[in-house]
Specification:
It is globular, with a radius of gyration of 18 Å. α3 packs antiparallel against α5. The protein has one domain. It contains ten helices and no strands. With about 210 residues, the protein is an all-alpha fold.
Length: about 210
């Protein structure tokens, strides 16, 4: 199991690092700073970075506060939700809009397919520590909500929107806001589903007398 955890942690770290390198490698200092802001404006990148932290911290500093936070059931459920939505939205709405080649294709596969799948599998295999409830699902919406505020605020100032369905200049604020509400509903439904799965596994583990997280 430890070898598996090291492998997926390395994968989760490599994906964002590769994508960042591809974005800034031929930029000047000024344009590189702009690209850096844009890099951190993608929910895909942020969710993958969260996965990297959650997977890496328990391996390199298992007694640290970050590792304890990373092993919490609520944390792992939230990141699993973010990555599931990242993969689902990309493959249904965005994948057909471009045709990456070479290293961009490698980055695309890691960020939108391999890391999301690996993290969800790891969550299903290992679970997490601590109790969960409806509040867990509700708290999972905090990060996407903050991201939505950042996206609209940043876009209003710079004119840059990371995803076409968030483009206020093209679709109007009301349409984009409705889109965000629909996505929030999707986040909540998946968070509730994952929370119920975790609770069922916790009860099963208790009945068998085996630990849920290892």
């Amino acid at each position: 199991m430890r070898h598996w955890r090291i492998l997926i942690a390395a994968l989760a770290c490599f994906g964002p690092a590769l994508q960042y390198g591809l974005m800034v490698h031929d930029e000047t200092l000024a344009t590189g700073l702009v690209k850096s802001v844009e890099f951190f404006s993608y929910f895909t990148i942020l969710s993958n970075l969260l996965a990297a932290v959650v997977l890496t911290a328990p391996l390199v500093a298992p007694t640290s506060k970050v590792a304890i936070w990373a092993e919490r059931s609520a944390t792992r459920i939230s990141v699993a939700v973010y990555l599931s939505l990242t993969a689902g939205i990309y493959h249904t709405l965005l994948a057909g809009l471009w045709d990456p080649k070479g290293w961009r294709l490698v980055s695309d596969i890691i960020l939108h397919s391999l890391t999301p799948a690996a993290f969800v599998i790891d969550w299903l295999l290992r679970g997490g520590q601590g109790e969960t409830g409806r509040a867990t699902a509700a708290k999972a919406l905090i990060f996407p909500a903050l991201y939505g505020v950042w996206t609209l605020g940043h876009g209003a100032v710079s004119g840059f929107y990371p995803y076409p369905f968030f483009d206020v200049d093209k679709h109007g604020f009301l349409s984009v806001f409705v889109t965000m509400l629909v996505m929030a509903g999707g986040f909540l439904l998946i968070a509730l589903l994952f929370t119920m799965i975790h609770q069922a596994r916790t009860r099963l583990a208790a009945a068998r007398g085996t630990p849920l997280s290892a």
